[in-house]
Structure formats: structure tokens, C-alpha cells
Amino acid sequence: MKTKSDDLSAFIHSRLVLVLLVSIAVIVLAVLGSASAQPRNKASSAQRQNVKRNVERPADNFWAQTNGPQGGDGIALATNMSGHVFVGTQGGGIFRSIDNGETWTGVNNGLTDTNVRALAIKAAGQIFGGTWSSGVFRSTDNGDNWTAVNNGLDSLSVRSLAINSGGDIFAGTFYGGVYRSVDNGDNWTLLNTGAAGPYVPALAINASGDVFAATWDVKFCTGIFRSTDNGDSWTEINNGLTNLGILSFAINENGDVFAGADVDGLCGNGRVFRSTNNGDSWELVQSGLSTGNGINALLATSGGAIFAGSYGDGVFRSTDNGDNWTPVNTGLTEQRVISFTVDQNGDIFAGTYVGGGVFRSSDNGNTWVERNNGLVATDVRAIAIKSDNTIFAGTYGTGMDRSSDTGQSWEQINNGLFAHFIRSLASAPNGHIFAGADFVDGLGGVFRSTDNGQSWTDVNQGVIEFDVRALAINSNGHIFAGTYVGGTIGGVWRSTDDGESWTHVNNGDNCGLIWSLAIDSQGHIFAGTAGCGDGVYRSTDNGDTWQLANTGLTSTNVAALAVSNNGHIFAGTRSLIGKGGGIFRSSDDGETWTEEDNGLTALDVNALSINSVGHIFAGTDGGAFQSKNDGANWLDVSSGLIPPRGPIDALAIDSEGFAFAGTAGGGVFRSVQPTVRSTPAPRPRPTPRPRPTPPL
After folding, report:
1. Nearest to 662 by CA among 616, 613, 611, 624
2. In the 8-state DSSP scheme, what is residue 358?
3. Region 91-101: what's the mean pLDDT?
4. Of the candidates 282, 288, 318, which has an alpha carbon nearest to the alpha carbon of residue 303?
5. Rounded Cα distance, 548 and 563, in Å
6. pLDDT (tens digit, 9 = 90+) per residue, 105-153?
7. Of 164, 136, 133, 168, nearest to 643 (Cα)?
8. Of 574, 87, 91, which Cα lies nearest the Cα of 339?
């Protein structure tokens, strides 16, 4: 399951996060699915649209990617000699722009790992991409095709890449050290940096070929190492470096080296350091750098400016070689900046996190404009479809998007929706839409729209103060919100007046960690829990009281619930440290459950949806599955997804039977054909709409 970074410092993992990963993250992230993110500085709620060519419908695939929602995590950026810009994303793979960022095209053919953490381009044009878990990929045709080149690369989590003037490639890995290739990536050799198998988040090479590596040892912060012999030997160069948690480098035309560091306290103090003697000594240069966040990106331009990208406070610029810094964030609506590149014309591109995508500045950073048209790499965790087939997609980071033409075009609709980490959606009988969100920046809970998403109102009413992971609405319009906090303070809340007021209805629910909700034709409510071992609770009195309903439910982290036309209830569960998971069915109102996993090869289930003829669809960490016989057998229907068999966090089916899947890094996908009939439906024709100019 894809998650956003939870560490206090930045998007890059630190020594502290490694300890947490070993001790609790397996449980917290894999089981509880918390996926919280750092406080967000989302200053603009302006709507934006994405309209481009028809949704492609390849006949041999089950799914086709829709045209949005647009955006994504711009983790890595690079520009070639022709001015083409490439961005590596988290889950969406690599995108290319040949028109200065005005439009983007996914170029993922052969790229089997679409979580791309590093990019580097040779002068001759060969492109290298470092991935989360599949090593290095190479393209010799401007990104059209990719080939894995990992011979000798034993550590396949590649976090940084650099290429020297002779064409030798250096790869920094996640606790695997630095590797070098002298034959265009065909073979790799492990280099000894002096740290014990370090994590290497950043690499840089100066005009003389000296290599600088930022290292984090498995036990402590180790700072910067330098090699003056092409990586054969390394020297620790930390004199004057008061923070050893280095995340980024930049080298200007004079050879001055700049190093950006993590937050204070993890590995020392200080944010940006400069060396004017090739790293022999360092000085702190952060006057005016008003951020407590880590510096994940640095850029030195030919005009002499230095840019620092912070994880939460946007971009800072220095025009006096780092002595003084000024924030330059006009138009930068997402301020978690994690990558930079600059083209030959001096246009600067900034890659942002939590779905913000790419921003461009053509005036040396004075103003920024969002440039995400065609960049479909968003993390969609909730989908709701109204009776008129209007689709609402809740993203984790950029709020809400809406499509009125089956995914052909999308419009961001955040007016009044100040919480942008959406986890649940539901449509009421009166047409009102309700959104549940995680609390980030102190904003979350339940929001309501009475005008088809044009505007939103916070309807927490001061009582719902926890993450809302599940929403369900019964035939009477009563709304049930499942909150995600343990004990009696969590659990289920009910509103009988369209969200104007809420009552805590948690009597009998001893867990409080609600992950899913469903209501059957009798009005019985089922609540799936996670992290407490209880599984499913049932209420037969509109939520006034709850009883455990988990006999036979051997996996109790229930991420999804759905009710079939025949009254059977399906529970999609997730594993705990590799145990459990899978799908369970109850044919007796939840009294007993039977595991139904035949053919289900991915057991971490995130979403369930059932079409009008009773076919069940399951979204998992390993793609999509379909059952046409009440769950007795499952067929893998993942073809066409990006990445192949990638995580699906949300599912919904429209009135024509088209299935829609919200993915972790690929936006929304739509089934190529309706799931309820064999003949294809007419293709929708998009109505061109003007794309609003992003705020300057």
C-alpha cells in the first residue's frame, strides 16, 4: 500500500524513521494504514481543469487510465539537451514534456517499477531512472522505452543518481551504499564510501569529477564523503558541518558546494551549508531561511542564484551565494518542494509532494505556475458516483476532483473544502455529497456539498475531531461517519439532519478504529475495524447499539465492506505482519463468515464494489480482481493498470456498469467495457473547456 511520508523531517527517510520502521511502522502503516502527512500549506482553493485527448481504450486491457485527476508527487526532475523535461513520480512512473512543461505524457513502456526516486541524463541523451525497489532503468530513445540495467546492483532501492563528464554513472541506494557503472549501466560495482552500507539520499559531481555523497549509516548520521578518484576511495569531510543529516546538494559555476540538511535534532542543527574549498570545511549559511523543515532540493543556476526547496515552506532564493535567503513562493500552491531542474532558457521547474505536481518559474523564481496538464499521477483514495454518473474522486493531498463525462475531463473543486486529505465519500438520497478527511493542518472531519461539489461546508459541528475513514448513508438519509481513533472516543457518529448535528453512537463498540462501513437492505449497519482484533461490529437499531459479528473472521483488519443484491456481506481485510488478509463472505447477516480467496493472489484488500448483476470487484495492493459467482472464485483483472497490478484504494461502478478504480499514483482508471454487458458503449466525446490560468 502506498503511503505518504510520516517522518517529522521531510519526504526523505531519516535515521529516526528507520528505527520507527523497524519497531512500529510495519504495524502502523501496513495494518492501520495511517498514512498521515506533514502539515500542509495549501494557500489556494482555486479550481483547475484537465482536458486533453480521448481516454484511450485498448481492446486487450480491462482498464484504461482516465485523464485525471491531474498532479502527483514530483520526486525527481531532469532536463536533456533538447530542453525536454522529465519527472519521476511516486506510483505514476515517468512523464515527459517536450513543450516546456505545458503538457506531459507518460513514458513508461518497460518500466516495471513506477515509483521513481531519481533521474539523470547523459550528454548523449541516455536517461537513467532509479526506482524504489527495482533498481535502475535506462532509456536510449528519449524515454519511449525502458530497460532494467541492474547487473551487479545488489541493492535495488535507488535514491540518487549522478553522471560525471566521462559518462560514468553513480547510484546511491537505501542502506546499500554507492555503486558505479563505467559501461553505460550494463554493469555496476559497489564502492566503499567509508560508512557501513549507508543510505545515500544525494550525490553530486563537480567539474573536476570529484564525487560528493550524503550518507546515513544504519546506526548514526555520517554526513558527507568525497571521492577524488572516481569513487575508488572516499574521505569523510564534515569539518564545520553541524548537521550531518544531509539530503541535497548543489554546486555552482565557481565550484562552491551547497548542502541541504534535515530538520534540527535528528543529526544536529542547521539547514544549509556552503563550502568554498571543495568540502574541506563548511559554514552555515541560512540568514533569512525561515523554515524548520528539511531542505530536500537545492539548485544553482547559471545566473548565480541558489534555490532551496523546503518540505513545507516552499522555495527560498539566494542571490549572494547563500549569505542571505528570501522566500519566493508566489503562485506555489504546494510548498513541499522535493526536486528541481532548470532548462537552457533558465526556466526553473520545482517538483512537489502530496500530489502537488510540477511548478514552473520563468522569472528566476519570482512567480510560479502549476504545470500539470497530462501529469496523471495522483493518489486517489475515495470515489463516489451519483445517479447521474457524476464522478467524485477524493485525492490524498489535493482535495476533490469531479468528472461529468466518465473521466474524460476532470475539474478540481475545493471551494470551501479546506481539508485535502480525503479518505471517504458518500452520496445522499437528496443528492448532497459528503466527504470524510484525515486531520492534517488541524483540518479534517466531514464536509458537505449541496451544489454538486461547487462549494463545500465543514459540518463537523465541533464534535468530530478525528480522521473520518468511512462514510455510509441509509435510505432515510441518515449519515454514519466512522472515525479512526481508538477506544470509546472513536467509533461511529450519526447525523439525522443532513450533517447539521451529530450524535456519538458507539455503545458496544470497544474498538473505535473504524475503517469501513456498509448498510444492507434491512438497514443493518456493519462497521469494519482495524488494529484492535475485533473485526466487524453490527447494529440492528440504526447505530444505537453495536455487537461483535466476527465468528469465522480470522483476519480482523477490515478495510472494506460491501453488500450484494442477495444480501450477502463481503469483508475485505488486510494482513498483519504477513498473516491474514483476504476476503470473507457472510450469508447470515454477519453471524458467521467464510473465507473466499480462491484465485485471489493479493490478500491485502483495500476496496470492494458490486455491480447491478452481483459481480464483485476487489481492489488490492496487488491489483484488481473480479468474482462472478458470489466470491467463490476470483479472476485477476489488473491489465491496463499503472503500475501493473498496482495498488487500488477505491472502487465504484456507475449506472451503465463501468467500473472506476482509484489508484496509488495513477489517478482514476475506468473499465474499458461496461461490467454488466458484453457490447461496448459509445465513446464519450469531451467538451473542451477553458483551463483556468493558475494563480500567479
Report:
1. 624
2. E
3. 97
4. 318
5. 18
6. 999 999 999 999 999 999 999 999 999 999 999 999 999 999 999 999 9
7. 133
8. 87
Is 690 buried (19+), middle (13-18) or exposed (0-12) by CB count in 10 A? exposed
Q: Which three cell numbers stand for residue 620?
A: 488490492
By the 8 A CB rule, do 129 and 149 touch? no
Could you tell me the three cell numbers for 155?
A: 541493492
Q: Are 377 and 91 in contact (CB under 8 A)?
A: yes
Which is higher by pLDDT, 645 or 207? 207
pLDDT at 14: 38
Rounded CA separation 182/209 (Å) = 14
3 state SS of 24: helix
Q: Residue count of the chain, please give it.
A: 696
Half-sphere exposure of residue 488: CA atoms within 13 angstroms, side-chain side: 2
- Report the DSSP beta bridge partners of residue 624: 619
Task: Please give the Cα distance from 139 to 130 (Å, whole number).
Answer: 12
Cis amide leading into 680 (omega within 30): no
Query: What are the Cα distances from residue 470, in Å, to 30, 257, 480, 502?
Result: 18, 49, 8, 15
Cα angle for residues 238, 239, 245 (degrees, 5° grid): 35
From residue 582, give the alpha-carbon distance in Å to each of 383, 471, 555: 22, 22, 8
Which among 515, 505, 455 has a CA at the least distance from the CA of 485?
515
With a cut of 70, say whether residue 688 has pLDDT above it. Answer: no
The pLDDT of residue 55 is above 50: no
Cite the beta strand spans of 490-578 per DSSP E: 491-495, 503-504, 514-519, 525-529, 536-539, 547-548, 557-563, 569-576
Closest CA relative to residue 623, chosen from 607, 646, 642: 646
Residue 69, preceding peptide bond in cis (omega within 30° of 0): yes
Q: What angle (nearest 5°) sits at the alpha carbon of residue 518, between those of residues 638 and 524?
A: 150
Beta bridge partners of 283: 274
Among residues 17, 51, 35, 696, the alpha carbon closest in space to that of 373 is found at 51
User: Residue 47 pLDDT more than 50?
Assistant: no
Angle at 313 between CA 264 and CA 200, to 5 degrees: 50
C-alpha cell at position 25: 511502522
> Which grid cell is 204?
553530486
If DSSP codes are grouped into helix, strand and coil, which group holds residue 325? coil
Question: Which element (helix H / strand E) includes 309?
Answer: strand 306-310
Q: Using alpha carbons only, how large is the chain's radius of gyration in Å?
A: 25
Give the chain's largest Cα–Cα span: 76
Q: Of 309, 287, 290, 311, nearest to 298 (Cα)? A: 309
**Residues 89, 72: contact at Cβ < 8 Å?**
yes
Element (H, E) at 201: strand 199-205
Torsion of CA 130, 135, 138, 143, to 10 degrees: -50
- The helix/strand/coil state of 516 is strand
Per-residue confidence band for 52, with pLDDT thresholds at 50, 70 and 90: very low
**Residue 641 and residue 93: Cα distance in Å, rounded?**
12
| Confidence class for position 372, pLDDT limits 50, 70, 90 | very high
Q: Say how far apart CA 296 and CA 224 lie, in whole Å.
A: 15
Report the relative pairing of strands 136-139 and 147-148 from DSSP bridges.
antiparallel
Q: Distance between CA 523 and CA 657 in Å, rounded? A: 25
